[in-house]
Batch of 4 targets.
Target 1
Amino acid sequence: MNIDKILLFIILANVLASIKGFSDRLFFDKYKFQMGAIQRGEKIRMLTSAFLHVDYMHLILNMYVLYIFAPIIIIKLGIVKFLILYFGSLLAGSLFTLYFHKKELYYSAVGASGAVAGIIYAAILLNPNMRLVMFPLPIPIPGYIFGLGYLLYSIYGMKKQLGNVGHSAHLGGAIGGYALLLLVYPEVFSNSLNTVLLLGVPIVLLLLFGHKLK
């Protein structure tokens, strides 16, 4: 497929910043999400950390997923609304992480996962019957089932602090992508109402009772 120039620019920015961070620890530490530094006023880290990655596998996975899902949104809604969704989800992921880990001054994170999670969710709302593979299931499943499973797993992972994964950023990004898609494309209510409701219920419950996950 022909890749949009703005999408290509975002991917290249991620690649170049991440490669710089791999070899320059001072650069990496200066721009990563670090709770104590952000609370001292370095809010720019909430943006810059989303262009850094832990290693090449982390980078490649995020950029591949973005490359697959972003065109669904760009073709349907245009580049401006895609950018609103991407950076809005990025910010939502950072804000949710900031809220959930605010008492952990040494908490740190990097990666575009929050933004990418928002793009995945928005794409699923636009095309809920797309077929996706969720490990370890060997067969493709409908997008709306994938989205629900992804959300529930992120909630569980955040509660149990599973692995070296920023589940809170994934969750915040997914919520951001969901909410912003409803805002910029309200037609989704008539086109995919059942999916909007199905994916919205756990989000509403999380917002109401999320404090109990801490």
Target 2
Amino acid sequence: MSATRYRRFLKLCEEWPKDESKRGRDLGTFLRQKVASAFREGENTQISDPEKCDRMYESLARINSNMYKEKFPRAKDTSFTGVTVEECRMLLATGNMQQTDEEKKGLWKTVMDRFSSKPEDGPPSEK
């Protein structure tokens, strides 16, 4: 029975789309890694909680088949902020996230430099 579960998860992993714009943060890649670690012995892996495993598979399969997107269609393809799906994808792309992180580091470094710098002449002495 474990072999059947393993094959079902492998098929799901094959069908799950990869988002190349999110290198290292892609849900499909994360899913593949989790399946590989859960089924270390492949078809011979013993499942401690088969019911939980089946529920997890069914949940992931429903997400992958867009069941909820079809069941609860959206009136508009924007959020409450007015940002479109394409704009969200662009903002969440790995390249853009790295650029934002560098900008944050720049600001943090600036703040730290401002508070940690010592005056060049030292404190004024009283005469």
Target 3
Amino acid sequence: MTETGAAALIGDYVVNALGGAGPLAVLAGIFIVSATITQFISNTSSALVMMPIGLATASELGVSALPMMLGVAMGASASFLTPFANGVSLMVYGPGGYKFGDFWKLGFLVMAWALIVTLVVVPLYWKF
């Protein structure tokens, strides 16, 4: 991602889309993009894909990279919307008699709560 320039390109896109609203909005965007990716691939892979993008975004904004990295980590851990995003969810999917839509009902609320907590706690402890 770094060597091909894809991280800088996506970082530029995020900054152009949300940079005018400040670093907190960019942090929210990084979280949401990471959380979206982690619904389809493992959280570790999602974090590895998003890490260079978070670094490029922080560099574009001229802020500390640590809050953006924490946004990536928290977003990559928010795999609550699909059963195949998390191994434990996938294990109980069949035996528990769950449907695909069951994960959206509570998963969206838990992910929204994780976003809110991230946006409140990260800037308190790790300044931009």
Target 4
Amino acid sequence: MIELKAGAQRVRVDQGELVGYEVEGHEYIHQKGSPGWRQSDTEMFPIIGPTDEAGFKVATPRGEAVQDQHGLLRELPYTLEEQEEQLLVFTKTYDAGDWVRNSKFPLKSTAEWLRWPYEFRFTKRFRLLREGLEIKFIVEGEEGMPFMLGYHPAFKLYTDNPTVLAGDKEIPLKAILDAGSRALEVPDCQAVTLQDIEHITIRTQDFGHFMCWTEVDNMVCLEPITFYPYAVSQENLTDGMMKLGDKAREFSVRLLPRILQSSPDAPR
């Protein structure tokens, strides 16, 4: 477990996973062991969404890839590359065609092994700012590699009726619960605000959309995504992929607690 601290902010990261973000003693992140989800954050890459109805196969220009729900990145371990007082940098690397064992097999999946026909390097960077926590993702790999990217953080809930604001739209928790496993789509959106005891805004760059998911009333996942996977059939997931160019692609998420924005020390 590694901690970052800056003023009233405290971040806890365990092997690349954000397991805690406190500001003035208020914990924003869903805690492992609490009902709802066994993790507190993860990444969805190189695809988002389920693949079981397509036989766990995803079409690419280099032939079929074998992918389970949300891709194979989550099966790879992070390596700590850099650590400073207010900065952590983790990476994952993958060699094209390598088989990776699926941790969901056999209880939750019939696909024992996963593979992707492109090599890539994935970087996750945590940086504490005066106004909040920035999480940046950097995708490097072979030119032309198709991919989707989603970030899947879970936020702890304290009140009975929290709401999510997306532009002029107010989304009650019940609407997210009613969406079920498909998650609730929030299209063409760069920022959402979770209104609870302490409000927090999730502001993104280059993702473009959100989806919201939970099956319990004590946590909610507010997930920046590059594509909503249920907009197409599982056989056509490639339709929602972007392609990597000759340079790395960067995507960023900022967690901005309202309490820091109202502080006289917050940046103008």
